[in-house]
Amino acid sequence: MEKFKNLFVEFKSIFVTENVLEENERHANIVTATTMFNLFSFCILTYLLTTLNVFKVDPIMMKIVIITSMLLLAIPALICFALKGRGKNLKLVLFMCLTTMLAMADCILKYNATLVMVIPIVLAARYYNRKFTVGVAVITAILFALSTYLNVYVGKQDINSYNLIIPEGTVFTVNSTLRDAVTSVQVDEIERIKNIFIHFFLPKLFLYNIIAFACIQISQSGKKMIKHQQEISKKGVRIETELNLANTIQKNMLPSIFPPFPEHKEIDIYALMVPAKEVGGDFYDMFLIDDNHLGFVMADVSGKGIPAALVMMISKILIKNVTNVEKDVGNAFNRVNNMLCDGNKAGIFVTAWLGILNLETGVLEFVNAGHNPPLLFSKSQKQFTYLRTKPNMVLAGIENTNYQKHEIKIEPGDRIFLYTDGVVEATNSINQLYGEERLLNFLNSNTELNANDTIIAVKKDIDKFVGNVEQFDDITMLEVIYKGNDLSVAEKSFKADIRELNNVQAFIQHALKKCNCDNKTIMQMNLATEEIFVNIANYAYSNENGDCNVIISFDQDKTFKIRFEDKGVQFNPLERREPDVSLSADEREIGGLGIFITKKIVDNIEYHYEGEKNILELTKIIN
Amino acid sequence: MKIGKEQNGDTLIISLEGRLDTNTALDLENEIKDLMEIKTLVFDLEKLDYISSSGLRILLSCQKKMNIQGKMIIRNVCDEIKEIFDITGFSDILTIE
User: Fold this and answer.
1) In A230, A324, A343, B36, which residue has its Cα 20 to 30 A from A34's Cα atom?
2) Does the pLDDT value for residue A47 go beyond 60?
3) Helical H segments across B1-97, by residue range
4) Closest CA to A287 of A315, A255, A310
5) A426-442, pLDDT tens digit by residue?
6) Is A437 helix (H, G, I), strand (E, B) or coil?
7) A501 to chain B: which residues are within 8 Å by CB?
8) Residue A10 — very low, low, confident or very high, per pLDDT cuts 50/70/90?
């Protein structure tokens, strides 16, 4: 049953491979074989009719012809089905047998089988192969000429062929049938044959040619159409390959190595761009104008795809180069704007925000060309707020726009968070927007993370909010954390294993010595480190495969901080019940001492769970 | 950490040199497994300059044991370690000379 159904698949002409013409030939072979099989069934019927003497032809000859026909039809057809239409010369075999069989049938039953001449050529058109169609047309014509000739001697005679050649005055006596009476008259056979060819075969041949011509046209246009389709799809593939290449070029253009300026410990900076299509229109940039000045940019080109990507490349290069020369954000945007307006026929514009931060003083100058307001984190107020200023016109909008420079002073610990539309306008399945408020709230509940972790966490939050909906716009974010000067920061990752304890303590001791710390404090900090680290090593990870990130910082307030981060099980060690130190030896419990000791010897201890990390920070004031 | 053991009859003197932390605590535990015959256990901490909660745990369990069998004495404690004993209330539990 399945095999039978599969045959119908062939009829439906469903193409699965790239070699369409070859698949088409297989389908066409199946059609031809099926036609032959139908003729085979027709032969069976004819056989039955012959036994009932319906045909006025010698029944023995009929039967021979029918049997031969059935063989000529069934055998190639079955072979074709078995091969599923595959085979280089299969069609030749099929058509030779078919045409021969039809010629035989035409020969014997010329009177009844008039239409059969067109069957091969119509089937051949299906192959969309001009040469083959022409070949079939010619061979069919030849075979039918032959069968017309042979029909004179065998098979049913058409009494019309006696017309014009029976002499005037001949008298008939109809004893049985008119045909018998007419055919018994003596005539010049040559004349009769001539008569047949001129008056019967030639007109048929003429009409046949017209049909053949139409079929050849079909075969030709079919093939042209297939070839054209292949061209179009090849072009599509080429365009896709080029788009992917363009994506790579674009990605490489945006700074992606972090930290970008490792020697500048005053800043922690990270950025991320996730395009909606292969190529995007958003970009960010960060560059050192000189050793004391950091320039950073967030921008969004209108539109998407290749046009936006091209403008994005130009804009990024212009902004960086002009800012490096002008060293003033207002002048920089004035010039960049005019350059972008020049020759901007496509009406593409760019929203952009540019800031220059003085790393020594914390003075931030910035300009906003129609872009989303950034978020500013104030360490003293411990929260983010939107830094709103009256935005100027977008870049590449109108020539000679005057861009207004703004200035604020930021303190060590403060942060700037920049983003594009793709963040606040991220939409979920019920058409809600992520929005400014959600962004603000999320940032305010994750103020302990570094720039990298913050941005990753925001992206995860956006993904969670959006769910399965396809990303509509490029999502881009950049964060700068200003740590200020006179700051020593060191960060190292250790395997969360108690055998690493000595290495962790050595790392901390080294930093403490650099801060001219006294021995007693060193010993205390070593102890605190052991208690915290051993806890993490023993309990954070269930399968012993985890890291503990240790970050040391020492700022000008003589505050020494050690921060332990791990990605293990969420656990706040500060929540543990403190041991009762007034109990006697017998009453004392063994556990809980470590954290207790730590709390007593450091000046401040804080725990946060953010970005799927346990963060424990110890603070000690060093004299 | 170096562990010195000196036994005089039913008195055992254990002197520790270096640091008693999570890693070295295991060594100490192995050394003092068998305290069956001991009536007086003395810890000489003159050369010990660091102790963490793992060390305290061992001292506490020894103290509990010796409270039944006899007595335990801690000697020559440096200032930093004495401070730890004070913070944790161990100064009241241990006999410090």
Assistant:
1) A230
2) yes
3) 22-31, 53-69, 79-87, 90-93
4) A255
5) 999 999 999 999 999 99
6) helix
7) 21-23
8) low
